[in-house]
Amino acid sequence: MAQAAGGTAERTTATYRAVIDATGRLLPVLSFFGRLPVAVIQFGSVLLVTRTSGSLATGGIVACALALGQVTMGPVVGRLADRHGQRGVVLCCSLLNALAIACYTLGALARLPTPLLVVLGVLAGVTVPGIGPLARARGVALVRRAGTDGRDGRVVNALFSLESTMDELSFVLGPALIGVAAFVGHPAYAFGVAALLVAGCGSAFALHPTATAVRPVAVPRKQRGRPRMPREVRLVRLGLALLGVLLGGCGAGITALTQDLGQEDQAGLVYAAMGVMSAAVGLSMAAVPERFGLALRWRVATAGAALLSLLLIGTTSMTGLYVAVTVFGAAFAPNLITGFGLTERAVPGERLAEGMTFAASAFVGGQAVTLAVAGRLAESYGPAAAFTVGSVAAALAFGVALLVRTPAAPEVTPVAAAPSGSGRGA
To answer: Is 155 part of a structural domain of the chain?
Structure first.
């Protein structure tokens, strides 16, 4: 048994090494710090506006507007990247997003009326460069170009595990940064850091040599010539939207419960505890045997999320909250990893960036709508109401997962030598 465990660990390590060989060491670092601002502004918007306006409902509404702006524009950013390449699209969005975050922060500090804050929130959302899903699309192209994936898709699955782990770590550091800023002085300090990061690391991600790995696709003028998205893609988007509702309900419940307990500055740390567990489980997903297909994995993951979310409903203390969210966090990364894996398998290759950004937008959209609704529920009926919304959504996501079938693996054409710019030192 020890030998089998050792062999599994060696294979998993070798698989992750193949991912880094394809992408280079620098690209994951840039993509991580480039996507960190999204975690800061998504989570921090509730705390920032709640702190400056004195209303959790207002904070939820403005955060919802920001997220809906991101949801609306996310697939457009992906489509533009498919057509024109990632470099120019990401560079433009990164610089505009840094400016929009700065204006949004100043507007909140100036205590502008809610309608104006909503407009500024939308601008901060629509300019998000979508580095997370675009990094997935770029990584898939690099792995395919290196010809190391094989028929079982193990290296691409490891790529998604690594990407989802970076997402989770960003949603650990993002709330933690907000929490530290709120403790030291004001959540606005973290927004200043976010603006600098998206301007610097987002631009570096755009200008990295691997940006040319995802080549622009010529699209006929008549859009009817574009390949249609299969049924599985639409089902996965629905499931991811419901998982976003789950996370949004948890976020509203955590914020409300920490406020009720007089520990509102710990909300970011609670989120961080959930993210640490999610990230740890996410990394281990690369060791899951390939005989457990993506559809089966998603059913198990959604069922786990539905069951473990029930722990949150009856939580009434800070100790209980930390324990419940840490246990619940184990179910989250497997859902996102599998959802993106199913999307990559089913989406037409020439619409990969659009498919990835649409999947991410579906998740964020579910979270956005719930932040506004669950925030009001939490104010009126208590944190348990917000947590219940999330549990119901998780149960529905399991129902959607039962309808999903694993798409056939794409044809892989090995490449003898990858062009320069994608190697280990890139």
So the answer is: yes
